[in-house]
């Protein structure tokens, strides 16, 4: 099949949920990059008008250039730090993501990690399962309600975290590139100052070069020996080596982490500790939300092929 504007060929180039794959396969010509050999890739690349990827995908300019007739990169995820959006747009390729539909789940997991880390819930479960309770109660832990919460990145997810914090009578402050208009919480321009003034720091910022390593050794030192860090954003935002050092030295009180620098690798030094709670990048992974994300990916692709406005186009970070 040679390229024509009417070919509706979608190249899947990352994991997508089976239900979305089935829908795409039913409606369009779906190809799977990972199952093709080099000759098939060369032959099929010119037909591809849409590339379907996910929030962890790395889509470089070189990869984009593999598809000379590409029109759209549809991302199954809200984060698109792995996609060279500027390069895509230079080539006239649009990019869509899945904002909004996963906000609640991600904020829920952020709060889950905060509570699980401060109250040491997973370690307390291990204590019960080991039979240690017979020898006396579990060690006392940290109070969350009423604490000072610092939010790093006050976008949709940061704001959803702040709404949950209100139910815990927390005092919320935040940092971002600038104060968010209409946001009722205290804006703190510097992350180190925010960390110094927070009991709990929740990272909700975008990934990408602008935020790489932003939660640095200095920020962790400012958070201090009573401070807890939660990251549900991207592993790149935290200087992971500095975090490991801080946890080992006890210069912060604990961490609740859903994302890591080199997923699925999690530093051994973070494992098996009562004050570190680890989850496998699952913040948006509920049945309802993954379905909604898949539907939005499908709707963006369908809108594109129908010549209609994209539902959720992105801008470069
Ligand atoms: C992933 C995410 O996209 O939305 C994001 O940015 O990090 C996740 O929801 C999801 O795991 C699919 O790979």
Chemical compounds bound to the protein = 2-keto-D-gluconic acid
The overall average pLDDT, rounded, is 97
Total helices: the number is 11
N→C terminal distance? 36 Å
Indicate the structural class: alpha/beta
Task: Write the CATH architecture name of the largest domain.
Answer: 3-Layer(aba) Sandwich
Q: Can I get a quick summary?
A:
Helices cover 33% and strands 15% of the residues. It has 317 residues and is α/β, with parallel strands linked by helices. The chain folds into two domains: 9-99 and 288-305, NAD(P)-binding Rossmann-like Domain (Rossmann fold); 103-278, NAD(P)-binding Rossmann-like Domain (Rossmann fold, 3-Layer(aba) Sandwich), CATH 3.40.50.720.
Describe the overall structure.
The chain has a 7-stranded parallel beta sheet. It is elongated, with a radius of gyration of 22 Å. The chain is α/β, with parallel strands linked by helices and 317 residues long. It folds into 2 domains: 9-99 and 288-305, Rossmann fold (3-Layer(aba) Sandwich); 103-278, Rossmann fold. Helix content is 33%, strand content 15%. The two termini are 36 Å apart. The site of 2-keto-D-gluconic acid (8YV) has 10 residues, from loops.
């Amino acid at each position: 099949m040679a390229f024509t504007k009417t070919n509706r060929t979608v190249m899947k180039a990352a994991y997508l949920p089976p239900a979305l794959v089935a829908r795409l396969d039913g409606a369009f010509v779906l190809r799977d990059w990972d199952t093709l050999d080099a000759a098939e890739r060369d032959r099929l690349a010119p037909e591809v008008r849409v590339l379907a990827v996910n929030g962890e995908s790395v889509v470089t300019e070189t990869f984009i250039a593999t598809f000379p007739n590409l029109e759209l990169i549809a991302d199954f995820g809200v984060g698109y730090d792995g996609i060279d959006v500027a390069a895509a747009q230079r080539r006239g390729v649009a990019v869509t993501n899945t904002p909004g539909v996963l906000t609640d789940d991600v904020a829920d997991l952020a709060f889950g990690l905060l509570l699980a880390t401060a109250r040491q819930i997973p370690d307390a479960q291990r204590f019960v399962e080991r039979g240690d309770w017979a020898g006396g109660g579990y060690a006392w832990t940290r109070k969350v309600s009423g604490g000072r919460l610092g939010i790093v990145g006050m976008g949709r997810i940061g704001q959803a975290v702040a709404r949950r914090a209100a139910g815990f009578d927390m005092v919320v402050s935040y940092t971002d590139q600038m104060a968010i208009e209409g946001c009722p919480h205290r804006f703190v321009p510097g992350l180190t100052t925010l960390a110094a003034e927070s009991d709990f720091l929740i990272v909700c910022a975008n990934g990408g070069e602008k935020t790489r390593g932003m939660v640095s050794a200095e920020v962790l030192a400012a958070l201090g020996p009573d401070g807890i860090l939660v990251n549900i954003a991207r592993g790149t935002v935290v200087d992971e080596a500095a975090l490991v050092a801080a946890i080992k030295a006890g210069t912060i009180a604990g961490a609740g982490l859903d994302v890591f620098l080199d997923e699925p690798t999690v530093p051994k030094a973070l494992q098996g500790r009562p004050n570190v709670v680890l989850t496998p990048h699952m913040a948006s992974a509920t049945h309802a939300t993954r379905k909604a994300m898949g539907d939005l990916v499908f709707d963006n692709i369908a809108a594109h092929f129908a010549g209609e406005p994209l539902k959720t186009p992105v801008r470069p970070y």
